[in-house]
């Protein structure tokens, strides 16, 4: 059974989603979505994660900025496993396996052309050896392959750029075909969704981040150089 309107309204209130157009879009999705989302079969997913997957599945474009880790939609299975196993919530082995499986399933949105992803990341993401040198080599290779997709743009902000906008905060902007976007910020003590003027402000910041970053071509050249020369066991 899908989420009912009263429960969805309560969730939207809880996360401070007040924009009438966005609320109506999500409520309409709930009314019309008699078929359960593909993620419903994964019973151990946290409710907040289910909510995000639902929003992500309804979006047509995501602008994702990361300072520490590769965006989830571009992670390899081994990289995702290494990250998930160190989460503060201390998930069980079964929960880790399930979340990694779900993360791989989510990536079909971009590989099948349903979702466009613009990913901007700090150069630090490319050097932090999550899972070790071998896992990181595979991850950098996967980034190069993902960037070949027409649905994916990858840009890197180099260390030489120095200070830049939002360097202390990662965030994602989810844009929808028929409604205004939502900003998602993941936090240790809870996730935050913002809308309205906050979306516009974050869009301006994201555009500034893209200006601070290398071009997509130069970014891929940097990734390849690090892959070829910069990873040590």
Offer a few descriptive terms:
six-stranded mixed sheet, Endonuclease, Chain A, 47% helix, 6 strands, 233 residues, globular, single chain, alpha/beta
Write up this protein.
It is a single chain. With 233 residues, the chain is of the alpha/beta class. The protein has one domain: Endonuclease, Chain A. It is 47% helix and 15% strand. It contains ten helices and six strands. It has helices at residues 5-14, 20-32, 47-58, 77-84, 93-106, 108-111, 124-127, 133-146, 197-212, 216-230, and strands spanning 61-66, 116-122, 152-157, 171-176, 179-185, 192-194. The chain has a six-stranded mixed sheet, with helices on both faces. A hairpin with a 2-residue loop joins strand 4 and strand 5. It is globular, with a radius of gyration of 18 Å.
Determine the fraction of residues in helical runs and give it as a percent range: 40-55%
Question: What is the arithmetic mean of pLDDT?
Answer: 88
Q: Work out the strand percent.
A: 15-25%
From the alpha carbons, calculate the radius of gyration and give it in angstroms: 18 Å
Count of DSSP-assigned helices: 10
Query: So, CATH architecture?
Result: 2-Layer Sandwich
In the CATH hierarchy, what is the class? Alpha Beta
Structural class: alpha/beta
Instruction: Give me the side-by-side strand order of the main sheet.
Output: 3-2-1-4-5-6
Give the beta-strand count: 6
CA-to-CA gap between the ends?
48 Å
The number of distinct structural domains comes to 1
At the fold tier of CATH, the topology name is Endonuclease, Chain A
SSE ordering: HHHEHHHEHHEEEEHH
Which ranges are low-confidence, i.e. pLDDT below 50, for 5 or more consecutive residues?
none
Q: What's the main sheet like?
A: 6 strands, mixed
Overall geometry comes to globular
InterPro entries: DUF5753 (IPR043917)
Organism: Paractinoplanes durhamensis
Protein name: Transcriptional regulator
Pfam family, one: DUF5753
């Amino acid at each position: 059974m899908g989420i009912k309107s009263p429960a969805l309204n309560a969730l939207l209130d809880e996360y401070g989603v007040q924009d009438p157009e966005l609320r109506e879009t999500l409520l309409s999705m709930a009314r019309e979505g008699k078929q359960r989302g593909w993620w419903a079969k994964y019973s151990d997913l946290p409710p907040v994660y289910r909510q995000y997957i639902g929003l992500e599945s309804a979006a047509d474009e995501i602008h994702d900025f990361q300072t520490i880790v590769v965006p989830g939609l571009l992670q390899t299975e081994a990289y995702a496993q290494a990250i998930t196993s160190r989460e503060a919530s201390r998930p069980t082995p079964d929960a880790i396996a399930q979340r990694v499986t779900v993360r791989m399933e989510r990536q079909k949105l971009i590989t099948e052309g349903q979702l466009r992803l613009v990913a901007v990341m700090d150069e630090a993401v490319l050097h932090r050896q999550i899972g070790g040198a071998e896992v990181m080599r595979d991850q950098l290779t996967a980034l190069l392959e993902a960037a070949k997709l027409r649905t994916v743009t990858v840009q890197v902000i180099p260390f030489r750029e120095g200070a830049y906008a939002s360097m202390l905060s990662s965030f994602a902007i989810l844009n929808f075909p028929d409604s205004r976007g939502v900003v998602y910020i993941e936090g240790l003590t809870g996730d935050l969704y913002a809308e309205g003027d906050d979306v516009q402000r974050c869009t301006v910041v994201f555009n500034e981040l893209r200006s601070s970053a290398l071009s997509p071509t130069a970014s891929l050249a940097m990734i390849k150089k690090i892959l070829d020369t910069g990873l040590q066991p």
